[in-house]
Amino acid sequence: MAYLVVAFPDLSTSDMDWIQEYRQKEDALYYDVIAPHFTLVFPVFDIEASVFLKEMEQITKELRSFTFTLRSATINKDSFNDYFHTFLVPDEGNSNIIKIHDSLYSGLLKEHLKLDIDFIPHIGIGNSLDKKACKNMVDSWNIVDFEIKGSVSKLTVIALENNIVQPLAEFILKK
Fold first, then answer.
1. Which strands make up the sheet holding 2-7, listed edge to edge?
2. CA-CA distance, 41 to 164, in Å (whole number)?
3. What is the rounded distance in angstroms from the CA atom of residue 115 to the CA atom of residue 139?
4. Residue 103 neighbours by CB under 8 Å, 6+ apart
5. Who is most buried in 32, 75, 111, 129, counting CB within 10 A?
6. Separation CA 136–CA 68 (nearest Å)
7. Which CATH class is domain 2-172?
8. CA dihedral in degrees (115, 110, 159, 173; nearest 10)?
């Protein structure tokens, strides 16, 4: 069992529907697994759930909610397999996500931070083994002058096993 921390964004119904319609076609790996989200702590396997939850509860007490704006898509090569991914990345709010990510990895999880992989705040919307297919996805988003505004007001600790997500706890962020 792996434990992660994610932020499910608060989005307008129309923006959520737009992202989900796109993901249904292009996100074969994760559409049926998890809703659109920012991953803040990547899978951790060797910590007990109670210890993980206590650590996250302690750290999140000081974290603040924030707004973000998505205006572009980018392509990313997965470091662990042969897939390429299409991400929506925030213009505004990017630094908030990075700082929260860094805070969550500051204590017990410090040794779990992968320093050889860039942290790119994102909402995943597509994936493929074909990098050109992902580049086409990126181009289809970036040719349009889109702007998706949202906010993050809570973090969710999830358990992940066999592509099944189980929410374990939610931590409300300070205003």
1. 38-44, 2-7, 154-161, 164-172
2. 17
3. 29
4. 59, 62, 63
5. 75
6. 25
7. alpha beta
8. -100
Residues 31-76 have pLDDT tens digits of 999 999 999 999 999 999 999 999 999 999 999 999 999 999 999 9
Strands 2-7 and 154-161, sheet pairing? antiparallel
Q: Which one-letter amino acid corresponds to residue 161? A: E
Residue with tokens 């750290």: 59
- Amino acid at position 141, single letter: W
Q: Which residues contact 26 (CB under 8 A, 6 or more apart)?
A: 86, 125, 126, 127, 128, 137
Per the CB < 8 A criterion, the answer to whether 59 and 106 are in contact is yes
The number of CA neighbours under 13 Å toward the Cβ of 49 is: 10
What pTM value is reported for the model?
Answer: 0.96
Exposed/middle/buried for 169, CB within 10 Å: 0-12, 13-18, 19+?
middle
Separation between Cα atoms, residue 93 and residue 130, nearest integer Å = 30
